[in-house]
Amino acid sequence: MPAGSPSFGRFGTADGVCRFAACAGGSTDRRTPGVPADRTDRTAERLGGGCAPSRGVEPSGTVALERPERSRHLGRTGRIWYGPPRRIGNDCMACCRSVPPLPDARSGSESISGKGLPAMTEKERLDAQPDAVESARGGAMQVGGGSQHGDSTATEAVFSVRWWPAVVILAAGAGAEAFVWLRFADDGTQRIFLSMPIVSGTLFLLLLWWLFASGTAWRLRLKGLLVVLCVAAVGRWAVRIDGFEGDMTPRIRFRWQPSPEQVAARYLERLEQEDARDPSGTPQQTAAAGAAGAVAGGDVRTGRAVTSPRAGTVRPVDWPEFRGAGRAGEVHNPRIDWDWKTRPPRERWRHPVGLGWSSFAVVGDLCWTLEQRDAYEAVVCYDIATGRQVWVHRDRTRFDEPLGGPGPRSTPTFHEGVLYSLGATGILNALEADSGRLLWSRNILDDAGAKNLPWGMAGSPLVVDGMVIVNPGRGGGKAVIAYEARTGEIVWAAGDRAAAYCSPQLGRLGGQQRLLVFGGEGLQVHDPSSGRELWFFPWTNDPKINAAQPVVLPGDRIFVSCSYGVGGGCAGLKDGRLVELWRTPGVKLKFNSAVLCGDVLYGLSERILTALDTRDGRILWKRGRYGYGQMLLVQRSEDQPDAGLLLIQAESGAVLLVDVTRDGPSVRYELAALNDKTWNHPVVADRWLLLRNGVEAACYELTVRPEPAGPGDSDGATGR
């Protein structure tokens, strides 16, 4: 309706001109009497659009109209938003173009809400409808020869978003994340644990802001939610979480990439086909049901007949159990040449293996490990020189959990021609080392009446004085059990403390050989002959995860360490009690076991190579990041008692030789050995370097310096 019309127009005024402040033309001092301020406000609310009144209100109730630089609008949903002022024709700003016709269809002077403001006539409603519809669709309007384009609508949409809550949420999340990364710079586990709720909480708050506080139209909010859901659906279809790193960072893989288990299954299927075609070694299945305590589903598959004449005799250069003889993680072979720059290791074989974090036991020509093969937990024997499978014993069981993944965790133990293995579900087997024939089998969790640990049974069996000792954990006085090595009968059972992920070991304390069990609550010291608990040293964390082996120190002392914000400490015997001597929170051994060289302890504290003075608990240095890997002490310095050479199996799969002293480390050589996450312990036996992870196994031949054969030397080990 043209401006200045004497009748009440589409804006509810006598002259048809919008009386809302943002739409008023003319100077900023313009006054328009006759429209009470409160009535103007109620009219805007009734219309669901239009402009809010200006700041000034006359004492008489009239509205002082102004034309601000940027109009303040009241949208259809009652929200306040800001947009650039636009003029339609000569009288009204663009804010009024979305004003619908008054809903009151009655004619005459009947007021809106009964307040005396005249309503539109039917003719005025029909005249105004096309403009309102076209304006709501964002179309261009041609009034008085001028044009209004849709680009300003996009500008209004940008200004219509209420951004400040999102900025506050992002700033708070970024600040909290920065604090965590700075505060826990040397503790990857704590950093990830704290970062996960911060990141997820920030994203959730941003989603709530977008849906309920962004101020945009609901149609746009729902479109944004739909985009988020589509991205999540595509991500779920395209990628998978293939386990976690040592600091609990998820490993993302595309779903079309074959999983390690699928690769191993194809290899094993091909291997069985080759065995079936080989007349010299046809696989045979032998029933194990007649063996004492045999597990349902167990069987032995005998492959190529490879026997070792030295399988019953352990030499100093062999590796008969977890972390070698004495479980100290030290190599005792002075003939190995560690000058890898001149004579690097030579790869002898490499092939896929079943899942799991087991290491190797090596005696003579044979090596043994544990693998998860589909629905079966398998004890596998390989020819160390060729990598060919000799035999495999299978138990129909499968352990799996999201963080550590499927498969067994412990390492077999060789003793006097018998191999003892403990699976992740508690199955303890005694097998003939050469043939794989089952001698006896028990389930230690059933015997103890205990529940399995969240990450499964991980302790390797310890053989001492004709007994096989394991740690099933809580179970009515059977937390630690000793079985008769020949028959599998229980010799003794003791304790009621929670188990953890360490292996039982021996250590001299108080002048005698003691049994050390680092459980979920702390260090237990037992009499190995009777199982009686002699001392207990509490050392634990919130999840009760102790996975690093204790280290026996000179002077009746023992060093223990764990992660999850606790660190390490030293216990010693005083007045017949095991008491704390010192602690060092900065040494957090998660599942890497340290090695002792002189008075210095070397280990991976939350991925960082660390040197610790065991005399007072002082950290000498922390340098070099190798992930959550493992290490061995392969050589001691002849000149410096605290110096030596470390072989570090990095979590990435690389193998490094690192010279260490009290002053610092120096990388001597790096070998790109494995190609995936590696938590398994490396093995150096005779001239062989054996490596594996949950994907593949590899064997490297090391150079061995020749030595004149003596009267008692029948090794046959020679240089290459």
What labels describe this entry?
alpha+beta; globular; about 30% strand; 8 helices; Thrombin, subunit H; 4-stranded antiparallel beta sheet; 6-stranded antiparallel beta sheet; about 725 residues
Shape: globular
CATH topology of the domain at 258-441: Thrombin, subunit H
- DSSP helix fraction: 10-25%
Largest sheet: 6 strands, antiparallel
Distance between the termini: 103 Å
Walk me through the structure.
With 720 residues, the chain is an alpha+beta fold. Among the domains are: 21-160, no CATH class; 164-254, no CATH class; 258-441, Beta Barrel (Thrombin, subunit H), CATH 2.40.10. It is built from 8 helices and 44 strands. β31 and β32 (567-574) form a beta hairpin. α4 (164-183) packs antiparallel against α5. The protein is globular and about 85 Å long. The model is unreliable at 1-117, 132-150, 281-297, 301-307 and 714-720 (pLDDT under 50).
Brief sketch in words of this structure:
This protein is α+β, with helices and mostly antiparallel strands. Helix content is 17%, strand content 32%.
Fold blueprint:
Elements: E1 31-36, H1 37-47, E2 62-64, E3 71-74, E4 80-83, E5 87-88, E6 92-93, H2 122-136, E7 141-143, E8 146-148, H3 151-160, H4 164-183, H5 188-212, H6 218-238, E9 239-244, E10 250-254, H7 260-277, E11 284-287, E12 299-302, E13 346-352, E14 361-363, E15 366-373, E16 376-383, E17 389-395, E18 413-415, E19 418-422, E20 427-432, E21 438-443, H8 444-448, E22 462-464, E23 467-470, E24 480-484, E25 490-494, E26 505-509, E27 512-518, E28 522-526, E29 533-538, E30 551-553, E31 557-562, E32 567-574, E33 577-584, E34 595-597, E35 600-605, E36 608-613, E37 618-625, E38 630-636, E39 644-649, E40 655-660, E41 665-671, E42 683-685, E43 688-692, E44 696-701
Helix pairs in contact: 4-5
